[in-house]
Amino acid sequence: MKWASAISEQNILESAIQECAVAVKEQMAGEAPDLAVVFVSAHHESDYERVVPAVLEEFPSARVFGCSGGGIIGNGLEVEQSPAVSITAARLPDVEMVEFHLEGDGLPDLDAGPGSWEELVKVTSAQEPQFVMLADPHSFPVPNLLMGLDFAFANSVKIGGLA
C-alpha cells in the first residue's frame, strides 16, 4: 500500500490538477494509483464537471472520489477562502473497490430487507465490505442511509464526511 498527497492553489482548475498530479506521480515513484481522492474549493465551482475527466487524464486507472469544500487539505497543508485543489492518491493492491452513487429518493424503505441494501451498493454482507462515503446533508437523508447500511452490513465499518 502506498499513499501520496498534493495541494495546489492555482486559479485555473486544469493547472491545479496538473500541479497536484506532478507531485503525486513523483511521490508514487512510477506506481499508478488505484484511487484518487480529490477535494476542490468552491472557487472552481463553474468547472466542477471537468474535475473527474482532468483527474482521469492524469491517472487513467484510478477510481476518483471526492467533493467540494470550504477548506481544502492536502500534503499536510490547509487552504481556506482561496482557490485550491488537493489530490490524495493510493496504490491499493489486493483491494477491490466498488463505487456507487446514490440519490435520496433511490434509497430502499427502512423496512426493506438486507437484500435491497446490498443491491443498492452492489456488494453483499458476505463480502465483508467497508464503506467510505461522502454526502450532502442538506439534500440527502444521511441518517436513513446509515440506518439501512447498519442493518444490512452490521459488521462493516462506515466512515466518511459531510460535504
In short:
It is built from 4 helices and 8 strands, in the order E-H-E-H-E-E-E-E-H-E-H-E. With 163 residues, it is an alpha/beta fold.
Would you kindly provide a written description of the structure presented here, covering whatever features stand out?
With 163 residues, this protein is an alpha/beta fold. It has 2 domains: 90 residues, 2-Layer Sandwich (60s Ribosomal Protein L30, Chain: A); 59 residues, no CATH class. The protein is built from 4 helices and 8 strands; from the N terminus they run βαβαββββαβαβ. The chain has a 4-stranded mixed β-sheet, covered by helices on one side. Helix 1 packs parallel to helix 2. The chain is globular and about 50 Å long. The protein starts with a strand and ends with a strand. The model has no long low-confidence stretch (mean pLDDT 96).
The helix tally amounts to 4
> Whole-Å distance between the termini?
27 Å
> Roughly how many Å is the radius of gyration?
17 Å
Spans of at least 5 consecutive residues whose pLDDT stays below 50 are: none
Number of strands: 8
The CATH superfamily name of the largest domain is: PurM-like, N-terminal domain
Mean pLDDT metric: 96
CATH topology of the largest domain: 60s Ribosomal Protein L30, Chain: A
Helix percentage range: 25-40%
Instruction: List the strand order in the largest sheet.
Output: 1-6-2-3
CATH C-level class of the largest domain: Alpha Beta
Structural class: alpha/beta
Sketch the major β-sheet. Answer: 4 strands, mixed
Shape descriptor: globular
CATH architecture annotation name of the largest domain: 2-Layer Sandwich
**What is the domain tally?**
2
Order of helices and strands: EHEHEEEEHEHE
Query: In what range is the share of β-strand residues?
Result: 25-35%
